[in-house]
Structure formats: structure tokens, C-alpha cells
Automatic annotation (TrEMBL):
The lineage of its organism: Bacteria, Pseudomonadati, Bacteroidota, Flavobacteriia, Flavobacteriales. It is an enzyme of class 2 (transferase). One of its GO terms (biological process) is cyclic threonylcarbamoyladenosine biosynthetic process. CDD domains: YgdL_like. GO terms for molecular function: molybdopterin-synthase adenylyltransferase activity; tRNA threonylcarbamoyladenosine dehydratase; ubiquitin-like modifier activating enzyme activity. Residues 12-240 form the THIF-type NAD/FAD binding fold domain. InterPro entries: ThiF/MoeB/HesA, ThiF_NAD_FAD-bd, Ubiquitin-activating_enz. This is Molybdopterin-synthase adenylyltransferase. The chain crosses the membrane at residues 213-231.
Length: 241
């Protein structure tokens, strides 16, 4: 591997750490405000094998918070925009692009074939998020799940904890409630903020793509969620035997 661009990283995690990252395989599902930044941080750290999944195109309303969203990319597929950027960071990245919203059968198929060391759930809708969490846990694949970044403005309130320790997050509350019915009460990490949501920033939708509502968002909160998720994955991969 050409390591010159990773010289600063190698000083920190040594050649052994670089090798672990280069051999690792990571799945990122959802390339919005959280997932796009997480994927970039993984690539810049030297993760060698990545699968990115999103069936959406860039919308003008994504520009305030999503890495692939520019006026020049509106209407383009997020997977394609993110892929081009990741390969420009690391041309040797073994990258698989999946341009679709995953149904449960496809999630199972991808997880069975991928041989992943870690899954990053950056989906912002409850039903597919639950499906991915259950599918990963069933296969004993490590997963970190991003909870609600909307309606929040304080980066100091963002943290990583087990799903059972999340609080002041409506999305996490829904996820915990639904998982309890599946006898899953704990056992995977989440990125969340314990800042109270600003309820006056809520907007209802027509229910397209499983979303019935969304909160207002600011540029830096989804990005810091992506940062925390990527950091958890990278540190795990570097430390593992």
C-alpha cells in the first residue's frame, strides 16, 4: 500500500494499525448528514474495504448538512457523488456502491456476503434502521447506530453509549421500544445527544421512505455524529487482535 498520504496517521497508530485498517471491511448504510461524513473519515483513516449504501439523490435541502450536497450535485445519486470523493481520497480503496433503499431481504443478502468487521447504521427512518440492527446482531457483526441529530445544536452533548443508556432522544426511544418486543434491550453502541430536542423545529411529511416527520438541523451536528461513529469503528479496528 502506498502509505505516503497516511504518514501522519502511521505516526499515531503505527504500521500495525495501518495494516489492520487496510484489511478491514466496513459497511456504511445511509449517506446523509451523518453517513457521508462517517464514510469520509473512514476513508481518510485508511480503511481498505468499504461498502456504501443509499438509494437517494441529492436534494437542494441537503446542502445545509450533507457532504455530497452542492448546488452542482443536486439531482445526482448520493452513492455516486460520495464514491467519487472517497476514491479521490484513496484510489486503492476497494469500494462497493449499492444505489438502493434496502428492504429486509437485501440487508440479509448484503450482510451474508460482505464479511464485514463493522456496520455503521446511518439510516434516519425507524423501520429500516431496526431491520439493519436486528440483521447485524443476528449475525454477531458489530454495529454502531446513529440516533436523532435533528432539533439539536449543542455538540458537547453528543456521545457514544449502549442503546440502553440513551436518553432525551425520540428516535432512540422508538428504537428501544420496538427492540424490546424482539427481546433486545442492549448490546450495541449508539451515537446520540442527550440535549432536549427543540420541538418547535418539527415538520410533518407525507410519509415517503418511512419518514413521517423530521426536525430542523444545523450544519455541524450530523457531522459530529458521523465523526463519533467513525472514531468508534476506527479505534476498535486498530485495537483488535
Amino acid at each position: 500500500m502506498d502509505k505516503y498520504w497516511l504518514e501522519r496517521t502511521e505516526l499515531l497508530i503505527k504500521e500495525d494499525g495501518l495494516e489492520k485498517l487496510n484489511k478491514a471491511s466496513v459497511l456504511v448504510v445511509g449517506l446523509g448528514g451523518v453517513g457521508s461524513f462517517a464514510a469520509e473519515f473512514l476513508a481518510r483513516a485508511g480503511v481498505g474495504n468499504m461498502t456504501i449504501v443509499d438509494g437517494d439523490t441529492v436534494d437542494i435541502t441537503n446542502i445545509n448538512r450533507q457532504l455530497p450536497a452542492l448546488h452542482s450535485t443536486v439531482g445526482k445519486h448520493k452513492v455516486e457523488v460520495v464514491a467519487e470523493r472517497l476514491l479521490d481520497i484513496n484510489p486503492k480503496l476497494n469500494l462497493v456502491k449499492i444505489n438502493e433503499f434496502l428492504n429486509p431481504e437485501r440487508m440479509d443478502e448484503i450482510l451474508d456476503k460482505g464479511n464485514f468487521n463493522y456496520v455503521l447504521d446511518c439510516i434516519d427512518s425507524v423501520t429500516p434502521k431496526l431491520t439493519l440492527i436486528k440483521s447485524a446482531k443476528k449475525r454477531k457483526i458489530k454495529i454502531i447506530s446513529s440516533m436523532g441529530a435533528g432539533g439539536k445544536t449543542d455538540p458537547s452533548k453528543v456521545m457514544v453509549k449502549d442503546i440502553s443508556k440513551t436518553q432525551n432522544c425520540y428516535l432512540a426511544k422508538q428504537v428501544r421500544k420496538r427492540l424490546r418486543k424482539e427481546k433486545i434491550n442492549k448490546g450495541f453502541k449508539c451515537v446520540f445527544s442527550d440535549e432536549l430536542q427543540k420541538d418547535d423545529s418539527l415538520k410533518m411529511t407525507d410519509g415517503t421512505n418511512y419518514k413521517r416527520s423530521f426536525y430542523g438541523t444545523i450544519s455541524f451536528i450530523p457531522a459530529i455524529f458521523g465523526l463519533y461513529a467513525a472514531a468508534e469503528v476506527i479505534n476498535h479496528l486498530v485495537k483488535k487482535n
